[in-house]
Amino acid sequence: MGLGPTLDTSEPLVLLNQTTRWNPFAMVPADSHRKVLAEMDLFSNHENKVAAIKKENFHVNEHDDINTGLNLVTHDRSSMGDGISSTEDENPTTNKLAKMQNELQKMNMENLKLKEMYIEVSNNYNALQMELVTLMQQQQQEQHTLRNASLDQQAAPKQLLELTSRDSSSEEKTLSASKNVVAAREDTPDSDAWTSNKAPKLTVPENTDEATMRKVRVSVRARSEASMISDGCQWRKYGQKMAKGNPCPRAYYRCTMAVGCPVRKQVQRLAEDQTILVTTYEGTHSHPLPPAAVAMASTTSAAATMLLSGSMSSAEHGFMNPNLLAQAIRPSSSSIATISASAPFPTVTLDLTHPPNNFQKVNSTAFEGHPSSQYIPSAAAMPLQAFHPGMYNQSRFAGFQLSHDKVSNQLIPHQIAPPQHQSQQPQTAFANSLSAITSDPNFTAALAAAITSIMGGNNANNESNNNNTH
DNA sequence: CGAGTTTGACCTGCGC
DNA sequence: GCGCAGGTCAAACTCG
Ligand SMILES: [Zn+2]
Q1: What ipTM did this prediction achieve?
Q2: How many helices (H) and strands (E) does chain A have?
Q3: I need a labelling partner for A462 at 20 to 30 A (CA). Which of A22, A154, A347, A452 fits?
Q4: Residue A173, nucleotide of least CA–C1' distance
Q5: How many CB atoms within 10 Å of residue A280?
Q6: Which nucleotides of B are covered by protein (CB under 7 A)?
Q7: Do A348 and A307 form a contact (C-beta atoms < 8 A)?
Q8: How far is the C-alpha of A414 from the C-alpha of A61, rounded, in Å?
């Protein structure tokens, strides 16, 4: 929280730059700025709003920067002026040098402190996130157990069927998957391929849930001219295919931030609107992530969890109560996230492109009339649409604007701000919705993650890692 | 020279 | 069984 302001009041430029270099997570190449331009705009649609918001804060920040900068400069100049007035040529320069060195040392010290703070916050954040995911998974498992028990009795695995929207053939898969029995998933080709390929690395204990999660896909639609949106991760392209019914090729990437990370993504432009980039994520990272990447990653995993939980519990627990959703949507009634069990993978679609209407397409595709398709408010889009400048937490917003300052994307930890924080804000309408939404932990996670993904997504512009653009 | 991309071959599942 | 489509592999290539 205090990081932003703290940074602002210290020497931002130096700090930011050094932080950029220091940050172990920062995969920002030296020429990142170039790529920023090349790869922009995960949310270009909201450019105006974002820009507006951004600017406001930007100004504040800018002023801070300018102030501090001026202070420094003033110091220098005053000292220089003294030197000049004393008509000495060497002393002033040496004095100046000494002062500058002093300043530099101070900066370094402060930088160090900030680094430590950042590391701590970052670690805390990651730990919290892990905890959250674990909790969610545990919750799921409990639900699964309960459901399976009841299913065994009823012999009518309806909810599970919803997941795959396949016929009886897929029943077993789904069942086995939801039972968290990885080994039992012998007949799912995709997972097989992925697990077998990644076999050496997939020693991850959470394998069971991961296998399930890996089946779940989270696709993000965003307007972008770039060949790929940056999400804070490092990706390596391993294939490209012409997809049927789409003049644009589909590119396949896998995460290279850690050897054996099972996360993959597909990037493809929409046939109907080639300015829209559809990025589909699959899997969960098996390694620590930079904040920017955490945002998207947690969005993915949370959304996946949400989908599973939602699909499975919707019947009984009323997860994602439509009314509640409607309430949640209202303030930002434009962008929509869709949960769809369309074959072959259950998919959550975050539509960060324009307003309405779009989501209907997604939903209607290849869907066999299963009721598991649910509309949920696009958590990611909400902040853009509904947040007012005042609603942003200082820290997160600081991160946001900093990122647009193109100085550094890593300085501010993109915390998944507890939604409670947001409801603390005076603005009522959205806060109400938020608090309503927050009643569901899964959605909370997704929401929070998605919110941070806004920051992260924008921030991540600094750290594009694909060389496709050149 | 290593890391990443390109691209044709290959594998697998699915529908006919 | 065959063809198609989605997905992956891996050799060749490019780039810094
Ligand atoms: Zn990864």
Answers
A1: 0.94
A2: 17, 8
A3: A347
A4: B13
A5: 21
A6: 4-9, 12-14
A7: yes
A8: 18
